UniProtKB/TrEMBL annotation:
Enzyme class: transferase
UniProt organism field: Microbulbifer variabilis
Intracellular or extracellular location(s): Cytoplasm
Known function: Catalyzes the transfer of the enolpyruvyl moiety of phosphoenolpyruvate (PEP) to the 5-hydroxyl of shikimate-3-phosphate (S3P) to produce enolpyruvyl shikimate-3-phosphate and inorganic phosphate.
Involved pathway(s): Metabolic intermediate biosynthesis; chorismate biosynthesis; chorismate from D-erythrose 4-phosphate and phosphoenolpyruvate: step 6/7
PANTHER family per UniProt: AROM/DEHYDROQUINATE SYNTHASE (PTHR21090), PENTAFUNCTIONAL AROM POLYPEPTIDE (PTHR21090:SF5)
Principal location: cytoplasm
Protein name, entry field: 3-phosphoshikimate 1-carboxyvinyltransferase
Residues the record marks as active site: 622 (proton acceptor)
Location of the Prephenate/arogenate dehydrogenase domain: 7-298
Amino acid sequence: MEKSHIGRLLVVGVGLIGGSFALSLKAAGACREVIGVALQEEVCEEAKKLGVVDRAYTSLPEALDLLEEGDLVFIAVPTLAVESVFAQLKDNLPEGVTVTDAASVKGSVQRSAEKVWGRVPNFLVLGHPIAGSEKSGVSAARDDLYRDHRVILTPVPDTDVDRLRLVAQAWQAAGSEVLTMSVEEHDEVLAATSHLPHVIAFSLVDTLAHDAENENIFRYAAGGFRDFTRIASSDPVMWRDIMLANRDAILQAIDLYSLNLSSLRSAIASGDSSALMGVFTRAKAARDHFTKMLAKQAYSEPMQAKEVTFIAQPGGTVSGKLRVPGDKSMSHRSIMLGSLAEGVTEVEGFLEGEDALATLQAFRDMGVVIEGPDKGRVTIHGVGLHGLQAPPGPLYLGNSGTSMRLLAGLLAGQGFDVTLTGDESLSKRPMNRVASPLREMGAAIETGPEGRPPLLIKGGKPLSGINYRLPMASAQVKSAVLLAGLYAEGETSTEEPAPTRDHTERMLQGFGYAVERNGACATLRGSGRLKACRIDVPADISSAAFFMVAAAISPGADVMLEHVGINPTRDGVINILRAMGGDIELLNKRTVGGEPVADIRVRYAPLKGIAIPEDQVPLAIDEFPALFIAAACAQGQTVLTGAEELRVKESDRIQAMANGLSALGVSAEPTADGIVIDGSPEDAVFSGGTVDSLGDHRIAMAFAVASLRAKDTIRILHCANVATSFPNFAELAVGAGLKLQLA
Ligand SMILES: O=C(O)C1=C[C@@H](OP(=O)(O)O)[C@@H](O)[C@H](O)C1
Ligand SMILES: C=C(OP(=O)(O)O)C(=O)O
């Protein structure tokens, strides 16, 4: 951990917060000496006795006299007392000393500073640790109170960057994660996440304490009461100050809460079970996704994205029976169509990966009651084609292109406005490919610069059917147009330049919606109805592909992949591997819920390089990262053409793979629409080294598979997004025989 460069630390207000900061910095060896200031002599004595401070004074100016350049003043008095501390600092603070505070409300502290100095002085860094305890006083101080907690710093334009860095380093030394945001944002977020819960806890306990029966209530109050009201033991003065200091934001939060509480009351009064389930399932999901929440958004980017590195040791082989998770494309569509259907749709085999969960959360945010997922089971209480409600904020779709493009189509026909956002990768992906045809249908869609997200979709625009000839083979574009067609006047049809996955067409039919299919064309009429059904999602062939390639390249391998969807619009990976000499058997072929399914057995056989037929490209579009690994292990050259679409996936997959392959000593030449790979039948094809997956799940998994034929360890950077499509990849891979570790 980086140590701060503070000389002396002066803590003004030696209670729980100030005392814990002092102890943390002392424990980290991050300051030379701690001086305390407290109003009462007894507190000074106790702080010294407990070893929290080295010296203590009841007079702030006296203590300030001891400071010099590079020292830090930490103000930890109740919010409304900060101003009087500022007033004493004004004439007594030595040059070069930095000041920070820990008050829970930043707007009022900013105003106090402006009152005292006319503006926030450049040496004052406003801050707030998101940590505390219901206990108070110096005797409750701990050196680990801030460890693994967040601290929000709210610099203003005048704040000196070196002072900001000094304060951030001090908090890091205390073990905290430092974030910065504006004063206004801080106060709104805290009103909702901290101040409102305290209001409710104080008021609930006060209400019950007034009750004549209170003794009984407290005697029998067990878990729920205890968990929920712990914070009502917090320091009353501190909380009074917070209420007064952050009045407007807290009032807004209380008003919103009162409204929701009264509709919950009505639901209970009228026995409205579905409204109760709605609130409870949404709340449970939100609580479970706690770390992904931001104020006013039910689901949002994790505040702190976790960093995962794959470390794949060389060699080994793969064997055994494996069931990879559910198909991602079908999982998305099951939530979308289940939500728009009338009645209750039961889904099995649902992919509990981040992408499909983003779609699920989007529909919860639009008022659909969805139970689960629980071991792949999801129960969707459909609201009908016209039953979605405006979400409380932008719909955050993470890394998922399918969610954004299909939702764009579906939402173009709603009566409300909605904004679609995504993570850094999704924010770079082209959206005009859906926005243009949807606009032709009458939709009002705004995109970010160059047709990138966010998408703002205006509601209440009447749509009319179109005949759309897709300029590229894309199931996402086809699906977006067809889903908008559900809301359009008349007939909507799509014509694709090459067959692409047809899960939308099949699943619509499964929900009882007429879709006419004729060669490259799919046609439907608006204003029909979807009837709830059961959906069994088979294992995802795109995930199975990593183990197919693993088996195809490792001598001695024999793998059985169970219950895999082998829809003919998705089977390119089987065809291509077979053309390269792969030994693949399809066993126990059957149809499940309108989709062909089989168990796929793959055994090792020497591979040879081929020119990949262009008609296979859309049928294997997501499998190319894995197929490039197979190509590197094949005798001779493999040439891919007609695959420019790979450049606009979660990463530019042609470049990302070419870079990674080259880093591992394989000759891989990217071209505008494909790649040329010179394979080698040697035992150790890949040299070992470090490759960057660029946060693309499929690049990460492909290079993990390469380790089977590597000479040395392969380190793969930025692998957290494997969880978008294949959350248990590492576990299954290790079980099958890969030597994979996570760091
Ligand atoms: O419709 C779908 O579920 C998908 C379509 C494909 O994208 P494009 O339509 O952009 O080719 C594919 O790459 C993606 O993983 C899922
Ligand atoms: C391209 C992919 O997904 P999406 O477009 O949904 O992000 C993929 O999973 O490989």
